[in-house]
Request: fold
Amino acid sequence: MTRLLHISASPRGGASESLGLAASFLESYRDAHPDAAIEHFDLWDGTLPEFGPAAATAKMDVFAGADPSGEEASAWRAALATFARFDAADRYLFTVPMWNAGVPYILKQFIDVVSQPGAVFAFDPVEGYRGLLHGKKAAIIYTGAVWGPGRGPAFGSDFQQPFFEDWLRWTGITDIESVGFHPNLATDDADASRERARAAVREVAQRI
Reply:
């Protein structure tokens, strides 16, 4: 059975453009893949563990070939449990609003929690990093209301898509399709732009 995990990084609920587009994607995905299992991981639901001093110490212990203990072991188990939930899927939908030219901090927290040695990556002191997630596909919906393709520097910069897709490729996930909805609120017909984005996400959902 194909398993799709929708990882959402917007806290805005029904007001969220990215979640609205995700609903269109998932409707089309269900039509195309009626036997697929679909799960939603709302990064704001309180289940994402922090990655603080104990977890960072545990990670360095593992790098050094040691087993974490005590508080560090508990933090490490929480990180690996989150990774296991992530790794159980073979298809992903990420909904990623733009915050301050980049991704929401909760998504960066998710990345820091799951990006662990022996889970997301292996490391060789000569060869460097090697991603361990293979045979998976990802669809990404990017949204934002100020920056957009072709706009000048006064509208900001895009560290959203380059950062996130670089991380995905680093993990070994290279089959990536993305749709962006970045209307210029001063000049665009936002409704028409939104409909174009909805059509695009439906097409991606048919293919992934």
Q: What stands out?
A: The domain at 3-207 is CATH 3.40.50.360 (Rossmann fold). The first helix runs from residue 17 to 32. The helical segments are 17-32, 53-63, 70-87, 105-114, 161-171, 190-207. Strands lie at 3-8, 37-42, 91-97, 121-124, 128-131, 137-143, 175-181.
